[in-house]
Structure formats: structure tokens, C-alpha cells
Design brief:
Oligomer: single chain
Strand content: 15-25%
Shape: elongated
Radius of gyration: 21 Å
CATH architecture of the largest domain: 3-Layer(aba) Sandwich
Catalytic activity: [protein]-L-glutamate 5-O-methyl ester + H2O = L-glutamyl-[protein] + methanol + H(+); L-glutaminyl-[protein] + H2O = L-glutamyl-[protein] + NH4(+)
CATH superfamily of the largest domain: Methylesterase CheB, C-terminal domain
Strand order of the largest sheet: 8-9-7-6-12-13-14
Structural class: alpha/beta
Keywords: Chemotaxis, Cytoplasm, Hydrolase, Phosphoprotein
Protein name: Protein-glutamate methylesterase/protein-glutamine glutaminase
Distance between the termini: 52 Å
Enzyme class: hydrolase
Number of domains: 2
Number of helices: 11
Family: Belongs to the CheB family.
Number of strands: 14
Length: 352
């Protein structure tokens, strides 16, 4: 957001009451300005053309065309930052994931937080975050025969950290991984209620096995371990045998405002795995993961950062790059193969 000029917003919701509540809530936020409201996608389309808003808030349920159908048209014809709004996110995990995959920048629940009375008190924050994103077109599903196949040797561990835009980015990276990929651990900033369905969806569309990390899991080639959001940090500790590494879930305060934190994962990889690790930092806000990736590089690990042009938000990758933590900066489309190449090189150096 530049200077003090407020972000312009068009609110799309079939409920007159909801439109009024959102407008009233945003009126109290000097960072945003509601310039139009619409009850149908057709009204919204005309307002978007006429007003050219910075951000759109979009309800899931509308007459004649649901929010996802309209989102698909927006991202195909006039990409822009969109905040999806719903009353019951916990029961709509699949819809949320689909919206993010289609290009939505944020999702927001109409349900007031515990102890609160205004269900839209935090919507302004979501709109500001969305405005800092670059809307991406939907990702085409890559057929298995088009995916890169490589032989993954044991002993190398890949750590990946991501935040806003990471759902899309992680999918693209993992689509390059073969069935016998190096053991991979992931921290994606995400509410706890969406972590399990996110891991299940990844497991359906990529070759390796994807699962939520459990305390005590022994890292194995061909498996991807995703940290569950909200309650515990994910670290990697040494196992009983040489070259064996184990997932460790730690109940501790948030780091950099996040739990799990990318920094927590990366610090543990630097300490435990050292030069036999590859660290990757993808799109996301602020700086979580930058210091941990620097520690990995100092420990001899190979480190990769997503470049500005392909990042939805060039926050975490930029912080790491400016700190000197990033050995190689690459566009998203090149990162999956680059990880495999570095793992192959590390494996040949360490495990002849």
C-alpha cells in the first residue's frame, strides 16, 4: 500500500445485511475504502470494469453463479487480489483449498472470533495482505508422464518453508518430485484445521507419499512430511543410527508470530543434518525462515530462494536473500528440479 491512499474494495455478497456489516467494519479502517457493493456476480462484473478496485471480497454462496465459478472467470479474464469470505470455513476445507489453488489471495471467516462481537474486525488486515499479492492464474495439473523422474539416494533431507502463496508454490515444486524423492519436511503457514486436508490433497496429486508430520516419524526417502498448523513447531533431530533423522514436534511459543515456524525447522536442519540438507524458502510475507536458512548455509547446506517475479509475495524470500542466506535464487518453475539436482550431488559426495 502506497502512502496514505486507501485501498479500494468492492464487496460481493448476496446478503444485504452482510454487505452492510462489511461496509461498516471497513469504514472504520483508514487503510481501505469500499467503493461499491454487489449482490450477484453480474453486478460485480460491471463494478469491476467501471471502478477497477484494488481488492475484491467474494462470498462463496451466491445466486446464479457461486463464488468459485466467478473466481475462475476473474482469474482468467481480469486477475486481481480476491479475499474469499465464508461463514463456516471449518466445514469447507476443500472449497478453501480449491479457491487458493485457483488464485484467491486470502480466505476470511464471517464467524466472530471467540470473545468478539464483530465478525469482520480483521477483514481489513486480510484485504491489506491480499493487496500485497500478485494474483496467479490457475495451475494446470501435470500428468505423471510429464513429471521429471530422478533417482533419490538416502541421507539428504530437504526442508521447505512457505507462507502466503505457498499452497500454489508447494504444489508446483512437489510435482517435479519422483516417487523415491529425498525425505522432505515442510512448514507452510496455515491454520490447523486446513493442514490435514492440504496434505491429503498433495498426496493425491504428486508421486511421493505426503503426510502430516507426527512426533517420532523417521524420515524416509519417498515421503513428504507437512507440519500441522497452530499448536507445535516441527524440528528434525538425530535418530539412533548414522544418517537417521526423526520428526520432533515441540510445544513452544510462536516464533516470528508463527507456530510452526520456518526458522525453527531450518535451525534444526542446520544443527542436525548440516551439509546433507537442502533448504528452500518460497513465497510469503515478512521474514520467517531467513535466519534459519542462513544458519543452514553456514552449516554447509545448499540453499535456494524463490525469485521476486514468481513470488506471490516477495517477503520471506527477499529477507533471506538480503541476509545472504540464499545461495541460488530461481523462478518457481525451476526450483523442483534444482532441489533434485542438489540432492543428487550431495548424495554422490556423501554416500559413494
Amino acid at each position: 500500500m502506497s502512502g496514505t491512499i486507501p485501498l479500494t474494495v468492492v464487496v460481493v455478497d448476496d446478503s444485504l445485511t452482510t454487505r452492510a456489516l462489511i461496509t461498516a467494519a471497513l469504514k472504520r479502517d483508514g487503510r481501505v475504502k469500499v467503493v461499491g457493493t454487489a449482490s450477484t456476480p453480474f453486478e460485480a462484473r460491471d463494478l469491476i470494469v467501471r471502478l477497477n478496485p484494488d481488492v475484491l471480497t467474494l462470498d462463496f454462496e451466491m445466486p446464479s453463479m457461486n463464488g468459485l465459478q466467478f473466481l475462475e472467470k476473474i482469474m482468467r479474464l481480469r486477475p486481481m487480489p480476491v479475499v474469499m469470505v465464508s461463514g463456516h470455513l471449518a466445514s469447507r476445507k476443500g472449497l478453501v483449498e480449491q479457491a487458493l489453488r485457483m488464485g484467491a489471495a486470502e480466505w476470511y471467516s464471517k464467524v466472530a472470533p471467540e470473545g468478539g462481537t464483530d465478525p469482520f474486525a480483521g477483514l481489513g488486515d486480510a484485504i491489506v495482505r491480499a493487496a500485497d499479492t500478485k494474483s496467479l492464474p490457475p495451475v494446470a495439473v501435470v500428468s505423471p508422464e510429464d513429471r521429471t523422474v530422478a533417482v533419490a539416494k538416502t541421507g539428504v533431507v530437504v526442508g521447505i518453508g512457505a507462507s502466503t502463496g505457498g499452497v500454489e508454490a508447494l504444489t508446483e515444486v512437489l510435482e517435479h518430485f519422483p516417487e523415491d524423492c529425498p525425505a522432505t519436511v515442510i512448514v507452510q503457514h496455515m491454520p490447523r484445521q486446513f493442514s490435514e486436508s492440504f496434505a491429503r490433497r498433495l498426496n493425491r496429486i504428486v508421486k511421493p507419499e505426503v503426510r502430516l508430520a507426527e512426533d517420532g516419524d523417521v524420515l524416509q526417502a519417498g515421503r513428504v512430511y507437512v507440519a500441522s498448523g497452530g499448536e507445535r513447531h516441527l524440528r528434525v533431530r538425530p535418530g539412533a543410527r548414522r544418517g537417521e533423522y526423526i520428526c520432533q514436534l515441540i510445544a513452544a511459543p510462536p516464533v516470528n508470530g508463527h507456530r510452526p515456524s520456518v526458522d525453527e525447522l531450518f535451525y534444526s536442519l542446520a544443527k542436525t543434518v548440516g551439509k546433507n540438507a537442502v533448504g528452500v524458502i518460497l513465497t510469503g510475507m515478512e521474514c520467517d525462515g531467513a535466519q534459519g536458512l542462513l544458519a543452514m548455509r553456514h552449516a554447509g547446506a545448499s540453499t535456494i530462494g524463490q525469485d521476486r517475479a514468481s513470488s506471490v509475495i516477495y517477503g520471506m524470500p527477499r529477507a533471506a536473500f538480503e541476509l545472504g542466506a540464499v545461495e541460488t535464487q530461481l523462478p518457481l518453475s525451476a526450483i523442483g528440479q534444482a532441489i533434485l539436482n542438489r540432492c543428487e550431488r550431495r548424495s554422490l559426495e556423501t554416500y559413494p
